[in-house]
């Protein structure tokens, strides 16, 4: 079976399929009892850095729901951690990092450490690809139909956590630093853009068939800052990947970017635009180039609620995109309280065509 027979990969490359392929952001996670069982065996970073565990966690939703895509189990903050920034995931609090606020803080980070520090992640990708495309001893391969996705955070969103030192609703320290010390902030973004392009190329070499850039906080920026810290570095990353690994699709996800998402789609060169919950799919389809595949965008809280309201809205999103390259997904990640049966109901609803 050739790679291009994989439905998700075909749509990532610009073909329209009916029904659309689907996968869900955070499809491997706390809502799954089999994930919670493994969660207690090791802390989060250890789980990401242990190929046996990361491979198993990535495959859990594939086995249960036969998703069209498997997304590497890791985190966007693994990159700053690999460059030497301290990182801990504190239960109930989230990530805690040693905040970067000055040139001397920045000088302590070393992108040259990333290949060695992320070697276990690349091993996980090699095992995943071999499992997904190989014979099927564990019931997850689905005959070579599943596309393997790598990812990274976008420079701005990763910088938010690096500068703030923890999660936030507004990331005031980060946005303040971008205005107060523009040269320092530009250096941080530039360092992250280069390291991200290199890491994504390494993920592709290890087996990722497409890569996604998560920009969860880009919507906090006004247009001029959005162009400088989101569009410009994303265009640089996409250009590097296109040059060094031609033909590998890049999915962009500038969450909460509103109308700036259209400029992002036109200017960055991403092959696929993932839309957040607030985006009107049909309206956005008019604003982005017709050859850009759209991904999204059911409200994760409707998946939490389940029932007819969920299946009706899921089919409405699917149907309005008919004839256009579209990948069904949520507008943000699966929330931990989601009943696993609702995910099964959603997958059936999207795949059932009358
Ligand atoms: O989609 C997937 O399941 C693939 C793996 C993945 C994780 N995080 C696993 C994870 C991906 C793609 C991410 C991306 C990520 N990480 C983003 C961008 C997407 C988004 O949600 O906006 C961001 C902002 C992060 C940073 C991060 N990681 C936070 C803020 C937290 C704590 C809050 C939370 O959601 O639990 C994490 C931890 C994290 N990343 C967990 C998982 C499964 C939970 C760790 C645990 O307690 O087991």
Automatic annotation (TrEMBL):
The record marks 75 as: Transition state stabilizer. CDD domains: URO-D. It holds the Pfam family URO-D. GO terms for molecular function: uroporphyrinogen decarboxylase activity. It catalyses: uroporphyrinogen III + 4 H(+) = coproporphyrinogen III + 4 CO2. It is found in: Cytoplasm. Keywords: Cytoplasm, Decarboxylase, Lyase, Porphyrin biosynthesis. Catalyzes the decarboxylation of four acetate groups of uroporphyrinogen-III to yield coproporphyrinogen-III. NCBIfam families: hemE (TIGR01464). This is Uroporphyrinogen decarboxylase.
């Amino acid at each position: 079976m050739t790679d291009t027979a994989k439905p998700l990969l075909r749509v990532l490359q610009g073909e329209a399929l009916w029904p659309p392929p689907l996968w869900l952001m955070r499809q491997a996670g706390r809502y799954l009892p089999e994930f919670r069982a493994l969660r207690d065996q090791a802390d989060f970073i250890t789980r990401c850095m242990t190929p046996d565990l990361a491979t198993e966690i990535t495959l859990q939703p594939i086995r249960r729901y036969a998703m069209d895509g498997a997304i590497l189990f890791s985190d966007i903050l693994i990159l700053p951690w690999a460059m030497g920034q301290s990182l801990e995931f504190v239960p109930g609090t989230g990530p805690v990092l040693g905040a970067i606020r000055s040139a001397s803080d920045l000088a302590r980070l070393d992108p040259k450490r990333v290949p060695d520090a992320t070697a276990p992640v690349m091993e996980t990708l090699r095992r995943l690809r071999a499992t997904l495309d190989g014979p099927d001893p564990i019931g997850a391969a689905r005959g070579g139909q599943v596309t393997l996705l790598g990812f990274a955070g976008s420079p701005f969103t990763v910088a938010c956590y690096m500068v703030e030192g923890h999660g936030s609703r507004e990331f005031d320290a980060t946005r303040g630093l971008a205005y107060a010390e523009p040269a320092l902030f530009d250096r941080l973004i530039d360092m992250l853009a280069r390291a991200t392009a290199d890491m994504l190329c390494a993920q592709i070499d290890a087996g990722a068939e497409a890569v996604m850039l998560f920009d969860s906080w880009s919507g906090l920026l006004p247009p001029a800052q959005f162009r400088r810290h989101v569009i410009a570095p994303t265009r640089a990353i996409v250009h590097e990947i296109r040059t060094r690994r031609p033909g590998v699709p890049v999915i962009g996800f500038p969450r909460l970017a509103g109308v700036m998402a259209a400029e992002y789609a036109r200017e960055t060169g991403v092959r696929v635009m993932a839309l957040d919950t607030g985006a009107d799919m049909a309206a956005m389809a008019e604003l982005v180039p017709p050859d850009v595949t759209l991904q999204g965008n059911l409200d994760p809280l409707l998946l939490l609620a389940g029932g007819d309201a969920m299946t009706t809205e899921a089919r409405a999103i699917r149907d309005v995109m008919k004839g256009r390259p579209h990948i069904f997904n949520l507008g943000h990640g699966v929330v931990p309280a989601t009943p696993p049966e609702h995910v099964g109901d959603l997958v059936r609803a999207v795949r059932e065509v009358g």
